[in-house]
Amino acid sequence: MSTKTPSQAISLSQPKMAARSAAESGWFFPLLSAMLTVADLTVAVGAFYLSLRYSVGNVPIVGPGSGIFGSSAPEFAPYVLLMLFIPLVRLAALHHFDLYRLRGEFSTTEDMIGVFLSTSLGSLVMIMLAFFYRGGDAGPNFSYPRDIFLYDWALALVGFSLLRIIVRAIQTIYRNRHGNMIPAVVVGNGDLAEICLEEITGRPRLGYNVVGVAVNDGETCKEVGGIPVLGSFSHLPAIIKQYGIEEVLITDSRINPKVIFDTIMRCGRGRHVDFRVLPDLFNCLPAKTEVQPLGTLPLIKLFEEPLEGFNRFFKRGVDLICTVLIIMVTAPIWLTVMLLLKLDSKGPLFYIQERVGMDGRPFGMYKFRSMFINTDDTKHREIMKAAILNQEQANQGDDDKPVFGKVKDDPRITRVGRLIRKYSIDELPQLINVIRGEMSLVGPRPPIPYEVEMYKDWHRARFYAAPGITGLWQVSGRNRLTFDEMVRLDIYYLKNWSVWLDLWILLKTPMVVLKGDDAY
User: Fold this and answer.
1) At what angle do helices 146-176 and 80-96 cross, to 10 degrees?
2) 75, 367, 423, 493: which has the fewest Cβ within 10 Å?
3) Are strands 208-215 and 274-277 parallel, antiparallel or unpaired?
4) How many CB atoms lie within 10 A of CB 243?
5) Rg (CA), the chain
6) Which of 377, 366, 350, 374 is nearest to 450 (CA)?
7) Alpha helices in 290-407 (DSSP H)
8) Alpha helices (H) along 389-498
9) Each residue of 269-295: pLDDT tens digit?
């Protein structure tokens, strides 16, 4: 009997549970995470308020015209700044130590360690703020009582710990009733697949619901370890879409990593799916991996961002802060461009273009519409194919002033579109992608899917980090450079990333943009 396609899959309880899990991940657990955030805010404010009352004195109840924020209690004014910043610092520290993850395997011991580290980090940041602030206008002789921070640390530690213990207890009860499960599919039909299935299906506390199995192309079987076969590996994107799969556990060592990468890209944007493999595939994996245990199974998570730890946290924080500031400063430009676009041609103000981001995951990139609607992209496809294959017709300029990757005298571009492209104003809406976490301010440029289909293996190294609005390529020649030169610059950036390199690129970008050269 031939392997079943997704539409022919056996209808068992797993698909129903997958639909339930997809619905949960759609609204229930984001809501639960929001409730946990509110509870953490309450603990953070309450711990500091109680510490203040115990250390300084009887702090008035907060109310109109009174309390710690009121004029009737000026002696508490030096503590106002700390009261405002403590919740933000606490939440940032909890997020940094991944204490809002409500899906998948969890360990109460690891949670407690995370709470201890996040609480201690938050307290250290608050002590630094207090040292530099020194009570503001309270006078040069003012100093904060040290025991405030000790009491605040202890109360916050107890409060956050109790919250996590309660949440994990609720999760355990819920999972025993087959709730809070991650819909997963196992790839393979050998011994490793059976071991993986036995471990996951026998331990609901791990938080996984194996919907079905996908086997290698050309193999035929009805089930593996009692779990139905939903199709072959080539059917995986359709299986993921149909059953709302969130994790793919690969146990077949015969699958080429390039095929895995192509499958990730074919899954489509809007579907965040994690791919993990058992260690038998270790010898053929890229360097960008992370070993994470699942019960007794040592699974390897594929395509982890190279900027890990503090660097990743710092870069993301800089992205968010700078993006908000840039949007505020450029707000008049946004309004002006939207008005001109409406007056110039018919069509939407924004154009959402399919691009390929980190790890080959597609996403919708926002741009101001610079072309007429319903235009043909055949010419651009031909030029990009020539550019990737290093053919002579890729150059749309001349020997003295080459232009790669752009259509010469492109008739699709509107009058306003030509202007905003010249100064890269059409790319301002990509700041929305930065806020959504799909892009960074600095990084490799995200390509169009039909470009990636023609990539050589070494070109795919560009996907090892989040794509950027600007990058080393943009400030080093832009469309004057060949495709291979662009990729080499992206790889150099990834291997030599530093805060100073990002800063240098950000400072140089406005000068390049204002020149208005090579943008279209």
Assistant:
1) 40
2) 75
3) unpaired
4) 24
5) 27
6) 377
7) 309-344, 378-388
8) 415-422, 430-435, 449-452, 483-495
9) 556 788 887 765 444 445 555 556 666
